[in-house]
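Below is a filled-in request sheet from our internal design queue. Each sheet records the structural input a requester submitted and the sequence that came back. We keep these sheets so that new team members can see what a complete request looks like end to end.

REQUESTER: design group, bay 2
PRIORITY: normal
MODE: inverse folding
CHAIN LENGTH: 396
BACKBONE (tokenized):
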């Protein structure tokens, strides 16, 4: 078994001895004593060093020892079994306690002496703490950062427009198989989740609005309110938010991992544009999937409201359907479906853009994935507000 690392004074030979295993895996106890300030070791160095030289005016200065000018201190390393860079650095910290003494090393082999000399010539210096930025400097930094992100996003959109136009000229280069696979992953597999949550949204809306309508005896108007809210707003909006959390994050993680694995660079080396091979199929599939999922969401939202209306407001299924056909116009359904492709393009575009912004490490993938979800939902709500204002101005 290796002897534990230690540093002690041998009074018989009047020298300090470094013994044992001074490697990074074995010096943790001695290193812990140093980190705590080593008060006992500092006092022992001061006491024994003054006794050795016959100097009674020795004053410890923190963890260092003020020694007499020109005094000689012998350090013996003949009992060292191992010494690596960490051990050499730790030993140098101990030698630095003798502030003015002439330290002489003995018993160290050639490798150990060279390592100690290297540590002395290149001491470790803690980096200076960065100066805190003033508020105006922080504001300017964030403004420049956001401007650069906006510029990169515009560049991304321009690249995608050029890619789409080129595909009209060369339709045989469209990745139909990739588009079909993405539709299967983002659309077909999302049907249970979208249907179930839309059903619950219909139940909740009917319950909340039905409580007020029931008070005034206007139970039948739940059909009008539910139809307008589900078809125009909640159907496309809830579907888009669900896909923003489910699909935008997946796109960012996939593309970000490809960036880290240098697969994107490999495609460029082969003369293949990543926009046409990776981004365009994802955006195309989301534009196709969103109207279909919105229709699916409308159906289950209305079913949930219909069921709740029968149990709570005593409106039969026949009455509900008849009222729905006569008082909820087809234009409400068309408005909701018209929003869906725009929401799909936003989700896919933001997810792919943030995936290509991944740099450095896997930690960046997690950060960009979070950013893609937040930005997708934010832009979806803004787009929905713009649609609402436009339809209000047009009187639709």
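RETURNED SEQUENCE:
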């Amino acid at each position: 078994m290796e002897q534990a690392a230690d540093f002690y004074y041998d009074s018989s030979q009047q020298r300090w001895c470094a013994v044992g295993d001074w490697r990074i895996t074995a010096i943790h106890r001695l290193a812990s004593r140093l980190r705590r300030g080593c008060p006992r070791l500092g006092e022992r160095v001061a006491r024994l060093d003054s006794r050795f030289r016959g100097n009674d005016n020795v004053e410890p200065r923190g963890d260092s020892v003020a020694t007499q000018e020109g005094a000689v201190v012998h350090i013996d390393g003949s009992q060292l079994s191992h010494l690596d860079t960490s051990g050499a650095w730790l030993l140098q910290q101990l030698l630095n306690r003798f502030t003015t003494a002439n330290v002489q090393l003995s018993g160290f082999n050639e490798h150990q002496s060279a390592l100690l000399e290297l540590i002395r010539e290149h001491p470790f210096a803690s980096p200076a703490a960065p100066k805190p930025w003033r508020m105006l400097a922080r504001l300017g930094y964030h403004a420049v950062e956001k401007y650069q992100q906006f510029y990169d996003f515009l560049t991304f959109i321009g690249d995608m427009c050029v890619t789409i136009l080129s595909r009209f000229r060369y339709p045989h280069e469209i990745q139909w198989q990739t588009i079909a696979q993405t539709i299967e992953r983002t659309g077909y597999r999302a049907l249970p989740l979208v249907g179930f949550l839309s059903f619950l949204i219909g139940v909740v809306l009917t319950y909340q609005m039905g409580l007020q309508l029931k008070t005034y005896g206007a139970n039948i108007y739940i059909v009008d309110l539910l139809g307008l809210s589900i078809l125009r707003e909640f159907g496309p909006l809830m579907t888009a938010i669900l896909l923003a959390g489910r699909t935008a994050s997946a796109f960012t993680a996939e593309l970000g991992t490809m960036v880290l694995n240098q697969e994107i660079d490999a495609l460029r080396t082969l003369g293949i544009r990543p926009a046409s091979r990776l981004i365009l199929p994802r955006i195309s599939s989301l534009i196709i999937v969103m109207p279909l999922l919105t229709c699916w969401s409308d159906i289950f939202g209305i079913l949930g409201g219909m069921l709740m209306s029968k149990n709570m407001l005593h409106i039969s299924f026949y009455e509900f359907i008849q009222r729905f056909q006569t008082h909820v116009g087809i234009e409400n359904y068309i408005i909701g479906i018209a929003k869906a492709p725009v929401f799909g393009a936003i989700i896919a575009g933001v997810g792919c853009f943030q995936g290509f912004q991944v740099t450095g490490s896997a930690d960046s993938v997690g950060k960009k994935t979070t950013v893609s979800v937040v930005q997708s939902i934010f832009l979806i709500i803004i787009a929905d507000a713009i649609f609402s204002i436009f339809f209000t101005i047009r009187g639709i």
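SHEET NOTES:
- Residues 205 and 226 are 7 Å apart (CA to CA).
- The first helix runs from residue 28 to 35.
FILED BY: M.R.
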